[in-house]
Design goal:
15 helices
Length: 535
């Protein structure tokens, strides 16, 4: 399908306006306005979405998301993903993007250490899947746009289907070329597509996108944003009609689209989006983006959460995104790509064993069921304590995976943040921090920045913590808690909350609201920067 920049020359079957898509002849099947699911969770359950479970959605949808770490918040504790950098070209320019290559010290979209051919990519995927049996998903996320490089993207998918048929296939796109590629997407059974949609009003879009490359020419300003918007909406509806699950990524840019993202959420829900992922702008000048160099700031933690909360009841929200590199490997929140560079792959003996992978994943599911049971037990205990029902707090958690409290405070590079109340322990985000312990010793200069990152939390759950950070956290009003070592996160958070409520009820403690926290805008780590300067 080819469509012109002139809306009058769009395909005859469909007219796309800034508002609702309207059919002129055959009416498109209307997407379910619940965002891809037709049931709702009961007491103690999340509604369909990244926090949903098998009781919250149709069986065919659950089968698609149950082991996809980006589409299921629960799965991201247990299953890994990887991206392959086979798509270097891009057909639009975003003011928040600078696609630097060979930049191993950064963790953000658009950067890679090695660009790959489709053949190299497939070899890498098979090697990773052999070494990491919980790796269930392969995505093409750049470093440009997957659909601006269709031959490389779909060649990778074709070869991978032949060699590793059990791995789910995903791609990420800005949506400009999406309507032309829906048939190919379905041909290769790509049943998860992420579309970055930052606006549904071109007047907002022209502040974000300087230009697009469309019909062999560069288009700028309002016209460019209008074409992009129309193509995104058309592509989203086409995917919904074909049964492809879609996740919408939106970058929150204070003063430009922060309030507007509520309308984005509403419009993508109308068109059947399964999830909406609202991410903070990464805006440090060191990354060389237009927004970074012009001083556009990113949101604070409370600003990000406020917009996400305002979208509750619309399209289901994803809050566990890590804004991954285009060559990321491993669990969300970790990157093992350095273990699988091309030179190291040459030394590896790769045996792709489907039975071994299935056996391992069966064990993962047993652990996952245990996590769910522990959470339900803690929720039942919470219902017996009588304190104001509207009480809810944020809790930071130090974890290295598996959905458990199992990381030393000094070894944390990100905290997972849970909003805890009497009825739920809801994952609401993560906070990157720089290592407090380096070379076996605590770096007291780093400690204030770590505290600022979780300053809106009432407690931090850790496997172990030293005396100095324990005292500084306590002085800041954050309770350090190390009594739940090895326990599942939700159960530990709820057990701590029940104790906290009990102390309030007894008069031993007075509940006080916390302040705002600082999202680290840069994607460099201080340690990586120090190493780069030393080199």
């Amino acid at each position: 399908m080819q469509a012109s920049a002139n809306t009058g020359s769009l395909p005859a079957t469909t007219y796309v306006s800034i508002g609702q898509i309207k059919s002129l002849r055959a009416k498109l099947e209307q997407p379910d306005t619940s965002g891809g699911c037709d049931t709702h969770g009961g007491e103690g359950k999340a509604s369909c979405g990244s926090s949903g479970g098998p009781d919250d959605m149709p069986a065919d949808i659950w089968d698609k998301v149950k082991n996809h770490p980006c589409y299921s918040e629960e799965a991201h504790h247990h299953y890994a993903r990887m991206h392959v950098a086979v798509a270097p070209a891009c057909n639009i320019q975003c003011n928040y993007c600078n696609r630097k290559y060979d930049c191993s010290n950064e963790s953000r979209p658009g950067v890679v250490s090695q660009k790959l051919t489709p053949e190299q990519a497939v070899k890498k995927v098979v090697a990773v899947a052999s070494e990491i049996p919980q790796m269930t998903v392969l995505g093409v996320a750049g470093p440009g746009d997957a659909l601006a490089n269709p031959a490389k993207t779909f060649d990778t998918f074709r070869m991978l289907q032949e060699q590793a048929p059990d791995i789910k296939l995903c791609l990420s796109t800005n949506g400009l070329a999406l309507p032309d590629q829906v048939d190919e997407i379905c041909k290769y059974n790509v049943d998860h597509v992420t579309i970055t949609i930052n606006m549904v009003d071109p007047a907002v879009g022209e502040k974000i996108y300087p230009w697009i490359f469309w019909n062999r020419k560069r288009v700028t300003g309002y016209e460019a944003a209008k074409i992009l918007h129309e193509r995104q909406m058309l592509g989203l509806e086409m995917l919904t009609a074909r049964g492809v699950l879609t996740k919408i990524n939106s970058v929150l840019i204070p003063g430009i689209n922060d309030e507007h993202l509520i309308e984005v959420n509403r419009e993508v829900k109308k068109r059947g989006a399964f999830l909406h992922n609202i991410m903070p702008l990464i805006s440090e000048a060191e990354h060389g983006t237009v927004f970074g160099l012009t001083g556009q700031r990113g949101p604070t933690a409370s600003e990000l959460k406020a917009v996400q909360d305002a979208c509750m009841g619309g399209a289901n929200l994803m809050r566990h995104c890590r804004q991954c590199r285009a060559d990321a490997v491993g669990l969300l929140g970790e990157d093992r790509s350095e273990e699988f560079t091309l030179d190291k792959l040459e030394q590896m003996e790769v045996v792709y064993d489907l039975d071994k992978r299935k056996t391992y994943q069966d064990k993962v599911e047993v652990e996952r069921q245990a996590q769910h049971a522990a959470k339900q037990e803690a929720l039942a205990a919470a219902s017996a304590i009588k304190v104001a029902e509207d009480l809810q707090v944020l809790v930071a958690v130090a974890t290295k995976g598996g959905g458990r409290v199992n990381e030393h405070f000094g070894h944390v590079t990100e905290f997972q943040i849970f909003e805890v109340s009497a009825t739920q322990a809801l994952f609401v985000g993560h906070r990157r921090v720089d290592l407090y312990c380096q070379g076996g010793f605590g770096d007291d200069e780093q400690l204030p920045s770590v505290v600022r990152a979780i300053n809106d939390c009432h407690a931090v759950l850790v496997a172990k913590i030293g005396a100095c950070p324990r005292d500084e956290l306590a002085q800041a009003g954050i309770e350090p808690v190390d009594q739940y070592v090895g326990e599942f996160i939700e159960k530990a958070a709820l057990d701590w909350f029940n104790d906290y409520r009990g102390r309030i009820a007894s008069g031993a403690l007075l509940h006080q609201n916390r302040g705002d926290a600082q999202i680290r805008q840069g994607a460099y780590t201080n340690l990586a920067s120090d190493l780069a300067q030393a080199a």
